Fold:
Amino acid sequence: MTLENFNEMQERVENGEEFSFDYKNEEYWISQNPDEYYLTRVRGSLTQEFDTSKALFEYGTIKGRKLFEIYMDIDWN
Structure:
């Protein structure tokens, strides 16, 4: 994923869209309900919860690394 794609994803999540993506052969979901945003690893349903989409992208981690540190290795479906 390019930085441009990563920024687009952030904007689209903020506007209500949800996404699935792969990172190192694992599938993840970014989803939401009216009160929270979620970053979930599909295998095992490991979920992180956030109050805002901004918090999800700022504090969400995969394998101990923040999303903005690994965006270039994310395969956006």
User: Anything to note?
Assistant: Residues 3-14 form the longest helix (12 residues). The chain has a mean pLDDT of 94. The chain has one domain: 3-71.
